[in-house]
Amino acid sequence: MSTDLTRMTAAALAGAIASGEASAEEAARAHLDRIGAVDEKVHAFLHVDTEGALRAARAVDAKRAAGEKLGPLAGVPLALKDLITTEGVPTTCGSKILEGWIPPYDATVTKRLKDAGVVVLGKTNMDEFAMGSSTETSAYGPTGNPWDLTRIPGGSGGGSSASIASYQAPLAIGTDTGGSIRQPASVTGTVGVKPTYGAVSRYGLVAFSSSLDQAGPCARNVLDTALLHSVIAGHDPMDSTSIDAPVPDVVAAARQGREQGIAGMRVGVVKEFAGEGYQAGVEQRFREAVEVLRGLGAEVVEISCPHFTYALPAYYLIAPSECSSNLARFDAMRYGLRVGDDGSHSAEEVTALTREAGFGDEVKRRIMLGTYALSSGYYDAYYGQAQKVRTLITRDFDAAFAAVDVLVSPTTPTTAFPIGERVDDPMAMYLADLCTIPSNLAGNAAMSVPCGLAPEDGLPVGLQIIAPPMADDRLYRVGAAVEAALTDSWGHPILEEAPSL
Amino acid sequence: MSTATSLVSYEDALEKYDPVMGLEVHVELGTATKMFCGCTTALGGDANAQTCPVCLGLPGALPVVNAKGVEGAVRIGLALNCEIAEWCRFARKNYFYPDMPKNFQTSQYDEPIAFNGHLDVEVDGEVFRVEIERAHMEEDTGKSTHVGGATGRIQGADHSLIDYNRAGIPLIEIVTKPIVGAGARAPQVAKAYVAELRELIKALGVSEARMEMGQMRCDVNLSLRPHGREKFGTRSETKNVNSLRSVERAARSEIQRQATVLDDGGSIVQETRHFHEDTGSTTSGRIKEEAEDYRYFPEPDLVPVAPAREWVEELRAELPELPRVRRKRLQQEWGVGDHEMQSALNAGAIDLITATIDAGAPADQARKWWMGELARHANESGTELDGLAITPVQVARVSALVAEGSLNDKLARQVIEGVLAGEGGPDEVVEKRGLKVVSDEGALTAAVDDAIASNAAVAEKIRGGNMGAVGALIGGVMKATRGQADAKRVREIILEKLGVG
Q1: Which residue of A182, B36, B169, B193 could cross-link B63, Cys pair, CB 3.0 to 4.6 Å?
Q2: pTM
Q3: Which domains does chain A have, with CATH numbers?
């Protein structure tokens, strides 16, 4: 086989497997080999499930041999964020407190992937419990950005973004609470989508902030992202917040965008996401992308969303509040780390010692923030007030979507920053999610798609596209159109600019 | 601290103080499955066999509301004359305890499903209205067993076992408004309220409400204030009182204890207390120096519950005959007074008597057995009437045997003893113990002859017209026949033989 299976798109690889040009096992082995070759440098994976992946791949090959119809991604390897439970395979959430925990059940996302014949290669690195924007808060060490291994791959889903940017997997699953799919996609030159809240089941996603968490697809191009989106999305009775409605046809939308463009669509540029704090090259590439949209026939207008400036503070009350409760279950009683169980400590003391040793600083910071914000006498001023801001932000979006079909902004204000640069400055770190957080608060759909390299550092810049709830298909239509136009202008996909590892 | 010897008498306590109570009753609903997952609620399973990721609070698991649980809550609310919320949410009650898997209890806070109701109870023939503050839905915790200590309490234990089978079983918590104006009858009102509530719950069929099995538990909050003072005193909270009798005793004992403390110039500490069946008094549990901060916030993993008005009205229309109405009807049918009916209610005997009548016994007989002999047994063994090892059908059979003359009352009591001791049904016990009225005229005549012969002086008195002496001869015959003679017939034969009457 002369073609490098790791360089193919997921759609092409699935086609090759379906037609018999390649086997699923060959595809799995090629990617496992790639992981063996480069992941020591990248550190995208926390756990590689070689045996499980080969077993799943062989099952797909057997099905094909038996003449069974295969799904559109059957046999395609995937990297799964370590926040998502996998029966019999470790799930740590990047935390010491879950070291050694083997979940007894599959998340709905995991189950849907397996049912579709997608081959799960392993579990990817992440900020501890998804709290971070750089993957540096992982208890298991940082992940390098394939564009520059001394820089961050974004976070919290840096392992997922780095794995696809370094050709260790063509597909990955991330989760996005404040930007953890989109910001990593932006800084690694890949595509990532946070679907509408409730579009993808949260059953089996270890909760950070229940009202904000959403799993979504990551890939190297828009069509692959759409294919993965349609595998994992859909109603799940195990998740009460799951939306019981048909999933928009995102695959058709991606094809339509690429083939027919976006003439006549109305695009709003969010006025508030520019200026101070935005890297010049990011703003430049963003402006150019807007011009590309205009060139494709879109009607572009500027839209003001005045309450977006309160999104970050509101988020940093809501997310920590929910996390302080969600993470209370890690008490050393039933699973995970247990410290001090030597017969001299009470159960309460063992819980305290375990949480002290098992949680990292950022997790502790947020648990304390949230515990405080929910306290009697402070609830109204903090959590209650933040929920009101949330309503105002949703109204801003409602007003905007009355005027335009999608909104656009830079995904994140800067390109990938050096590992270590913001680790001691939480506020600077939190600013990385400035543009992505409003969509989590409002529960709508958003995508990051590459829009070039910043001239000053040659690192990828992402264009964020935002659509109303359950209009995820618009993301794919616009994303595919802009991707096609930009790829044409560059002459090749953006990742080909990345250095080889 | 006061000792038992210096305890203020109940009468003296009431002379000076006015008791104010608040009663919180937890009822385990008899749904087939738990409140937020599909695990069975059946009793008696192996420890932790009836658990899943959801009720174990495993990372990633999510709750789904049991519709039957909501229906049960609405029906209870309607039967308590409550308003039913048009829209309400679950809330998380955050606190750490090893038997609570998530370290928060999914409950309701400021949006209960039912509120503002009342329940009328009868004490000494007078109706007393207990106002209901709210009824809300929540889940039960696991059950801790503390091993190695002398008391079974956590203090002094060397380890604890936790069974999560109970975790997640639906609970309805019913909270009264402050009960004022009951005066000396406060303990009776408390007992009558819990008894009435239990009847109501059973009539609705939403729970068996067996207090001895923890399916219904009552917290008795009680405070005293000097007569004429508006402001409530500091309350104590006596937790998990688990029988009707104990509810009354706990309230009574708290009135005396608090009066003693106050008379000594002391002040009541706000604390939880434990009631002890053996001593009939309470001891201090956990001191609540400041109100515990549960950091309630709306449960983000669940969607709001919005019972449709039409559905609520359907449920209202389907409510069964309410216990007080039913009792009025039964009282007429049975031909008994208010007091007898109230005693039957307080003893939890209404359904048992009804079932016994349904099984063929005359009303007076059914009532006589349950409220006499069987109530005495229950009292002595410290169980509830329906916890006795005898069924209404068996009681009806005993009654039938008496009616047909096969048993006299004394023998019938022995039969009941035998049934309670597990020797089998009434007929079996009669057979095994050889308990049959001796109706053989020959045997009786012989026994009478013997009695006359050995008590010549007594016989002479009778012949002389002293009918009061007949009892002595009857006694002799009964003794000789080991109580199996029909006393009425014996009397007739004696009088015949002696030529009197």
Answers
A1: B36
A2: 0.88
A3: 5-307+391-491 (3.90.1300.10), 308-386 (no CATH)
